[in-house]
Design goal:
Blueprint (H helix, E strand, L loop, with lengths): L6 E4 L4 H12 L5 E5 L2 H10 L4 E4 L17 E4 L9 H21 L4 E5 L11 H16 L3 E6 L2 E2 L6 H11 L2 E5 L5 E2 L2 E2 H14 L5 E4 L5 E2 H11 L5 E5 L1 H14 L7 H7 L10 H5 L6 H10 L13
Parallel strand pairs: 1-2, 1-4, 2-3, 4-5, 5-6, 6-11, 7-10, 8-13
Antiparallel strand pairs: 9-12
Helix pairs in contact: 1-6, 3-4
């Protein structure tokens, strides 16, 4: 693939986008257009990757951002609303924005797209994120554009403002860390840099009409993730178990006073839903070897620069 051709990355300033653009540079790609609506996070992205072009835009609204799609070779669709309290947020970012981006991809006759879906399309959970991600993937499939679809499980890595990133920072500040129930909820965490390697391989191979479930290669209980982070960061936080229903009620109460809760009751339901995802062998499909989980945790939480950068939560 010609590494000077234009690549557009939507949702570029979040956890995945920040990691992906760093890796695109590592791989020698030089013509990258990064679109995101969060001004602060875009500034971080630009500081770390001075050569890229950044566009601050809400893709759910018409605007000059559409002009960037002219003469573009590839689109990497990362934009998504992951957490939030209101259905409208998920509709705007996962549905309306996707419709508008797909319209520009068709209008500009872009040769290839990688759409980042989610493992939740196979989930038994029922919430705003799951419902709108399912609809988003359907929109992409119905569009008939040349593309492949990647469905990652829960990701962790540098720049994470939510999920494990927030939990790790909470442990630094709090003497006590609460865990719902017994904490033995199976997780299959996916290291963001491994997933970035998969995205780039998918872009280079241009496998049209295929969907790949990308799952973390090691299984671990939620409480053991928390213990691993505590160990790696040398924290003295006391981990305590709280009955599930009490934990749920506390989250509901907290959401009344905080319009941007880092962890919602819906996410607690998803955590304990009992989902088990079966993914492709991405070493075989994409020639990408998974980073051992303990090594990935070490890289994430001990990097001298990137582990200290905290993105603004966008919802």
């Amino acid at each position: 693939m010609d590494k000077t051709k234009k690549i557009i990355v939507t949702g570029a300033a979040g956890l995945l986008g920040q990691n992906l653009i760093l890796m695109l540079h590592e791989k020698g790609y030089t013509n990258i257009i990064a679109i995101d609506k969060n001004k602060k996070n875009l500034a971080i992205l630009k500081r770390l990757n001075n050569a890229i072009t950044t566009i601050e835009a809400d893709l759910s609204k018409d605007g000059n951002w559409a002009d960037a799609f002219e003469n573009t070779d590839t689109v990497l669709m990362l934009h998504a609303q992951i957490t939030g309290l209101y259905r409208e947020e998920f509709i705007n970012n996962n549905i309306v924005a996707t419709e508008k981006v797909l319209g520009q991809i068709k209008k500009s006759n872009i040769s290839y797209t990688v759409h980042i879906s989610s493992s939740v399309v196979n989930s038994v959970a029922k919430d705003y994120y799951t419902d709108t991600k399912k609809e988003q993937e359907t929109l992409v499939l119905k569009s008939k554009i040349p593309c492949c679809i990647l469905r990652p499980t829960l990701m962790f890595g540098w720049f994470d403002p939510k999920h494990l990133g927030w939990l790790s920072r909470f442990m630094e500040r709090a003497p006590v860390f609460p865990v719902p129930g017994n904490g033995k909820y199976l997780r299959q965490p996916l290291y963001s840099r491994d997933f970035c390697r998969v995205i780039i391989a998918a872009m280079e191979k241009q496998r049209v009409g295929e969907t790949f479930d990308i799952v973390g290669q090691e299984e671990i209980n939620y409480i053991d993730i928390i213990r691993s982070i505590k160990r790696i960061k040398h924290l003295k936080t006391c981990i305590i178990k709280i009955p599930y229903h009490l934990f749920y009620c506390l989250l509901k109460c907290y959401a009344v006073f905080n319009k941007k809760p880092p962890f919602t009751a819906d996410q607690l339901t998803s955590l304990t839903a009992g989902d088990y995802f079966t993914g492709v062998d991405y070493e075989k499909c994409f020639n990408i070897k998974a980073t051992p989980l303990n090594q990935a945790f070490e890289e994430t939480y001990t990097h001298p620069e990137y582990s200290q950068i905290i993105l603004e939560r966008c919802e």
